[in-house]
Amino acid sequence: MRITEWSKVDMKWYFGVLCQKCGSPILFALDRSDGASVPAPAAKLVLTCSLAGCRHQADYSGATISRFQKQPDVTNEGKNQ
Ligand SMILES: [Zn+2]
Predict the structure, then answer these.
(1) Which residues contact 17 (CB under 8 A, 6 or more apart)?
(2) Of 28, 31, 63, 81, which one has the fewest beta carbons inside 10 Å?
(3) Cα 3 to ligand 1 centre (Å)
(4) pLDDT tens-digit profile of 27-78?
(5) Which domain holds residue 27?
């Protein structure tokens, strides 16, 4: 068992786009390259904002994909912007 993999803080990188409505990051994929690769624009990408109170669904095909890191003590829920 590889306990060490689970005991450390989640510092993984995720691919995501910024919500077209509220600007919050929408994470949709785990970057398994640890930031080594450049994300390519997706051919077809429809995402729904995970922020409660927004839930804006939009087509992000061809949108600029950025890399995000989850903050250990910050979640999308309960963030007021
Ligand atoms: Zn949103």
Answers:
(1) 25, 26, 28, 45, 47, 60, 63, 64, 65, 66
(2) 81
(3) 35
(4) 998 888 876 776 666 678 999 999 999 999 999 998 888 988 876 655 555 5
(5) 11-69
